[in-house]
Design goal:
The structure is a single chain. By secondary structure, this protein is mainly alpha-helical. It is about 50% helix and about 5% strand. It has helices at about 40, 65-75, 85-95, 105-110, 135-150, 155-165, 175-180, 185-200, 200-225, 240-250, 250-260, 270-280, 285-300, 310-315, 340-350, 365, 370-380, 390-405, 410-415, 425-430, 435-445; strands at about 10-15, 30, 50-55, 80, 100. The protein has a 5-stranded parallel β-sheet with strand order 2-1-3-4-5, with helices on both faces. α3 links the parallel β4 and β5 (about 100). α18 crosses α20 and α18 runs parallel beside α21. The protein is elongated and about 85 Å long. The mean pLDDT is about 85.
């Protein structure tokens, strides 16, 4: 694959209810909605890019996972967290290079905050401005401390307020609910809410401070680079990349990254989706997959690329002289001219530690197809938005016809020799495409 063209470093901030759109300072950051699982992979981040995580989802959607943050740290991306879920993740990953900023981060780092719900709020949808509908526990606790230090809240009142806030689920902790449940402490609760309205809560304060600090650091670094000076150490954890790279890797992390990584910069087509397009619809993909499996297997056991499949299987622990009638070595129409060893190798190949078959788009799979051409092909075949889901059983029937197999065992072998883990994975990935267009491809293949 060709090298990606260079581009200026990007600066991304994931922010939602912690900082309203009108409060977000103008500058070099691009603001995106609260982060969720897969968002970092989908950005196609590169060394030198900078990410600030402020807000993130964690209940109705999969939250940003630690492995995903470690993966981009290992690439050389600068990642910081503050104010909300970002502060919690930074506290958990400080030893691996994620930078933490602000008072909420400090509280999480020293163990005062331990749960996502401590910073969680119910908020409106992004299209409605993402405004906060409830008050975070950490905001209540910090405001209690500020009022007590100013002599405006007694210890007993502070304890009552905290008890009321802790008794409510974060989705129910509205200002009205806090006042309703305050009982005798209602005047003190009113003072606390007025304080938050006048001064902003600690999460908002942290978010603004982090954005201003990072903008100032960015301006200073840019000035130093323009003057030909070396950039100063600004606390990003220079040695973090090596430690992150040593621990982040897993087959699940690699799969997440592959699924969300664009096929090329700025594309809406993911790399995994593009590979599935080739696996499912290219008539000669079994040949491409065999070439890929032979190369990767030879690399993994340190044998030369031209060595025979029998030697590769032996090095991988398979018994020599594989029986041609073994179930996994039986021929299909696409592999009748292969040796039994080639069929077994292609159908059982896995990347270490043994779960994934592919974690990128290798040259063998592309076979000279340009990424732009593949992208357009995927877009033309994509299922239209809002299309009702097609039952897996229908996809299985369609793929059997497309691949020219009849018996269930032949269908399983056809899926394996195309690089799928099983026929269920093939049907799951096929669901992203338009069934009517796939049926048309099937008719053409039959003709």
């Amino acid at each position: 694959m060709t090298a990606r063209p260079a581009r200026p470093p990007r600066r991304i901030a994931f922010v939602g209810p912690t900082l309203a759109a009108a409060e977000r300072p103008e500058g070099s950051f691009t603001y995106l909605p609260p982060v969720r699982h897969g968002d970092l992979f989908a950005l196609d981040l590169r060394p030198g890019d900078q990410v600030l995580v402020i807000d993130g989802v964690y209940q109705h959607f999969a939250p940003i996972r630690h492995k995903e943050i470690l993966a981009v740290l290992a690439l050389g991306v600068r990642v910081a967290g503050t104010a909300s879920l970002g502060a919690l993740r930074a506290a958990e990953l400080a030893g691996f290079g994620m930078r933490g900023l602000g008072q909420v981060y400090t509280a999480a780092r020293c163990g005062e905050l331990v749960a996502d719900a401590d910073v969680g709020v119910l908020h409106a949808a992004d299209g409605d401005g993402g405004r906060r509908l409830t008050v975070a526990t950490v905001a209540v606790r910090h405001a209690v401390a500020e009022l007590a230090a100013a002599g405006r809240l007694s210890a007993a009142e502070g304890a009552q307020i905290r008890q009321v806030a802790d008794s409510l689920h974060f989705t129910e902790r509205s200002e009205q609910a806090l006042l309703h449940h305050a009982g005798p402490a209602r005047p003190a609760m009113r003072r606390l809410l007025d304080h938050l309205a006048a001064h902003g809560d600690v999460k908002t304060q942290d978010a603004l401070s982090a954005l201003r600090l990072l903008e100032a650091e960015f301006a200073a670094e840019s000035a130093e680079e323009s003057a030909g000076q070396s950039a100063r150490d600004s606390g990003w954890g220079v040695a973090a990349d090596a430690s992150a790279a040593a621990v982040w890797g897993s087959s699940y992390g690699a799969e997440w990254a592959f699924e969300r990584r664009p096929v090329r910069g700025g594309s809406v087509v993911g790399s995994r989706h593009a590979l599935a397009c080739l696996q499912l619809f290219e008539p000669d993909f079994p040949e491409r997959h065999r070439a890929y499996a032979r190369r990767m297997a030879a690399d993994s056991v340190g044998l030369p690329g031209g060595v025979g499949s029998g030697a590769l299987l032996g090095a991988a622990g398979f018994a020599p002289a594989t029986r041609p009638d073994a179930r996994l070595a039986r021929p299909t129409a696409a592999t009748a001219h292969w040796s039994a060893e080639d069929r077994l190798l292609a159908r059982t190949f896995r990347l270490r530690p043994g779960r994934l078959v592919y974690a990128d788009l290798p040259p063998e799979a592309l076979a000279g197809t340009g990424l732009a051409e593949l992208e357009q092909w995927c877009l033309r075949l994509a299922a239209p938005a809002g299309q009702p889901p097609v039952p897996p059983v229908s996809w299985h029937a369609l793929l059997r016809r497309l691949w020219g197999v009849r018996r269930p065992h032949e269908y399983r072998l056809a899926a394996l020799e195309r690089g799928f883990r099983d026929e269920a994975e093939a049907a799951r990935l096929a669901a992203a495409f338009h069934p009517a267009l796939v049926a048309l491809l099937t008719e053409r293949a039959a003709a």
